[in-house]
Sequence to fold (256 residues):
Amino acid sequence: MLHCNEAGNGYPVVLLHGFCEKNTCFNKQVFLLKEHYKIICPDLPGSGKSEHHISTSIEAMADAVYETLIFSGIKKCVLIGHSMGGYVAMVFAKKYAHILDGFGLLHSVATPDDEERKEKRVQAQRTIAEKGVVFYARQFIPPMFKAGTAESMIAPYLDEADTFSAEGLTAQLEAMKNREDHTEVLKQTVLPVFFGIGKFDSLIPEDKMLQQAITCKQSYAAYLPESGHMGHIEQDELTAKHIAHFVDGVKSFSGE
Fold:
């Protein structure tokens, strides 16, 4: 089972963190949403308080999330993943759509890594092996925020760098590098799909997010006009508001 933070007693909303994060990255959304929903934030394998497994893959992460939710008695939910968590959400939607009323990608894509991105994953693994997690995280994290973001906003996430394990991050990089293309899942699903889009996202440009959104039968575009790749932190209240609107719409559609 994965370690989870849970709060609230309403309709279940599952939030999956990204790479170089743990479930506490959603603390502001938990605070803002727990009055109306049951917010479930797992630590994905290799992050936070969840153990790293040698067989870590995006599919294995999705399986672990499913097993954790079933163990917790969750029969239906909305699941939204940030970045790497979005890759997990795509696999989850492919394999376990029967417990979803909707799912979402927050600064994430259904497509696999291209060759250039794969090579960057390998380079990241080398940097972690040669210079350590703290050095790597301090190079990796700041560019995910909009240029000019106050250091005071970024600093808490840099300070967490020494809590990550080299083994966990290396395995997650390998899992992301080897993930499959799930574009057809977006095209075929009848579930509503949430897209969290940062205007200044340097990793996943807004036009790529919008192109994904128009392939779906039902999509919700949550536009974050002052965000880079970290909208849940950079525009935490607006992100929470968009999640609430999406979940309420999904509940109405599903008859909850």
